[in-house]
Every structure is written in C-alpha cells, then in structure tokens.
Design goal:
It is a single chain. This protein is 39% helix and 16% strand. The protein contains 10 helices and 10 strands. The strands form 2 sheets. It has an 8-stranded mixed β-sheet. α9 packs antiparallel against α10 (268-279). The chain binds iron/sulfur cluster (SF4).
Length: 293
C-alpha cells in the first residue's frame, strides 16, 4: 500500500467539503479560460489513470474510516466518460460503504454532454451533489470573463441536474462586473438564481489573483475591483433579487466581508437589515487581511 493518496498540485474544494475524502480524478479544469480564475493555472487538463484512482480509493478504505463524504477533484469530474465515472462511483460504494455522499464540481458544458438518463444513472450510483459555478446572471459579464456558455445554458443545466435527483449548489462572484456594471450584475444574478432555484447558493467576493487575465486587466487600468462598500451594496442587491423556494444562501466564504448563512425566503428581510447595519458601520466586517480564497 502506498504512503498517501496521489494528489497532484493545489487541490481545491468547496468550504462544505472540508472534512471529505478528496479523490482526485482529473487534473485541472477542462475549460480553464475564465479570466478571474487562478485555480488550476499550473496544471494541464488530464484525466487520471483509473488504476491511480482505484489505488487512492483502496488507500481511503484503509485510512479514512471516519470520513463520510467523498469529493471528486479537480475542477470538473463530470467531464469523465460515463463508464469511467460509473466505475469510480461503484468502487467507492464497494470499498467505502460508510460514505453517505459523493460530490463534485460541474460546469454547464459537462452537464450538457450527459443525457437525462446518464445524469440519473450517476445519481443511482452515488453522485449526490454537484457544485455549479454560475458566477454571474449577466451574459455580458460571462462573456467578458471568458466563461463557457450563457446564463440560459447554466440555468437549464442546473435544473436538469436537480431533475435527475442531484442536489445543486451554485456559486456566484460579487464584483465581477466592476463598479459600473455592479447593479445589473447583482440583479440579473439574483434573477438567474431564482430561475434555477438550487438547494444552495453561495456568493464569493472577487479577489484578483496574480497571473490571471483579470489581474492583468486591472494592472493595465482596464478593470476596477469593487471597494468594501460596493461589495456590500452588491450583496444587498443580489439578495434582494434572489427568490429561492427553500434554499440556503451563503456568503460565508473566506473572501466575503460579511458572512451570512440564511434560509430563503424566510430570512431575507433580516439579512437585508444586517447588511444595512454593516453599511452604516454598525456591524463588524472581515478585515481585508483576513480575506482569502
Ligand atoms: S472558474 Fe471553473 S470553469 Fe472557469 S476556469 Fe476556473 S475551474 Fe474552470
């Protein structure tokens, strides 16, 4: 048995997967062109050999007896051919029978490549949750950021994932449209989240990462990131425009100034009141030096 799992380079996972077994099935992201994203810049996209993934599952079977969740890394495990992914899910079920949830990042392209029957088949074999990056509900902003697909595609693919039985968590990024586009970005993003109606929506705040195209644009004076106050105003406008039927809305990512964890629609007014208090200087905010991705 090898000494440790085969994790290549920086491995990223959502905050809620902090205690999960991180099983790396691909390297990097199959898209890799989003202007703000520095996640996998050092990796060339590749699907890892099945034998390596299976050895990692066997390692977890020996050493991860208390972890109840598995998260498939890196950026987009759903891009795997269906039979490869099913074989991994089956191996997890066989060797890690105590695991109660398998999650993965997804994007609109990889979801679209799967038929409804294939998505349902993944659920039947144990894939219970996908994290979809919408980033913005504004088509202009998605295009400016180099995101694959438009808002309608993301809404449709998110809804297909849920119809197949997956839980859906959708992330959006405050500040992506700069100060001049902030209001529209927030409103349209709230409307897109409402149309998707996911189980969970999470807002991150933009942080410029050296080496990314967006950082270059900022250095060239072509992009302005939001101030703390603008970011709070954008969060307020986003929540005001978001109507989920039963979902959680989170802004508790380490990049955010004001951590919120609210249930919509129940807690909307209370959240808006808290943001107003923060804008009036009556609520403590996360200091700049504590923010991170
Ligand atoms: S934001 Fe997501 S889809 Fe875009 S490059 Fe980064 S990991 Fe890939």
């Amino acid at each position: 048995m090898k000494d440790e799992m085969d994790l290549v380079g920086m491995v990223i996972r959502p905050p809620s997967e902090a205690d999960s077994i991180l099983l790396q099935v691909t390297l990097g992201c199959s898209h890799g062109k989003c202007a703000f994203c520095g996640a996998y810049r050092e990796k060339r996209f590749a699907i890892k050999p099945e034998s390596t993934v299976f050895e990692d599952i066997d390692w977890a079977a020996a050493y991860c007896l208390r972890q109840r969740r598995v998260f498939l890394c890196d950026g987009d495990a759903l891009i795997l051919p269906q039979q490869r992914l099913l074989a991994i899910l089956d191996r997890i079920r066989e060797r890690l029978p105590w695991v109660t949830r398998v999650g993965s990042y997804a994007n609109a392209k990889s979801l679209k490549r799967k038929t409804d029957a294939e998505l349902a088949e993944l659920v039947a074999h144990g894939l219970g949750l996908v994290y979809l990056g919408l980033e913005s509900g504004d088509d202009k902003t998605l295009a400016a950021m180099g995101k694959h697909g438009d808002v309608a595609l993301h809404v449709a693919q998110g809804r297909r994932a849920m119809a197949a039985g997956m839980k859906l968590s959708v992330s959006v990024v405050l500040g992506l449209a700069g100060p001049e586009g902030a209001e529209e970005h927030a409103r349209l993003t709230g409307e897109a989240l409402s149309a998707m109606d996911p189980d969970q929506a999470a807002a991150l705040s933009l942080m410029l990462i050296p080496g990314t195209p967006l950082h270059d644009r900022w250095e060239a004076g072509l992009f302005t990131p939001p101030t703390q106050e603008q970011s709070l105003r954008e969060l307020r406008a986003l929540i005001a425009a978001t109507n989920l039927s039963r979902g959680l809305f989170l802004s508790d990512h380490a990049s955010n100034y004001l951590p919120l964890r609210i249930r919509l629609p129940r807690d909307k007014e209370e959240a808006l009141t808290r943001i107003d208090a923060a804008l009036a200087g009556q609520e403590a905010l996360r200091p700049e030096w504590q923010r991170r991705l």
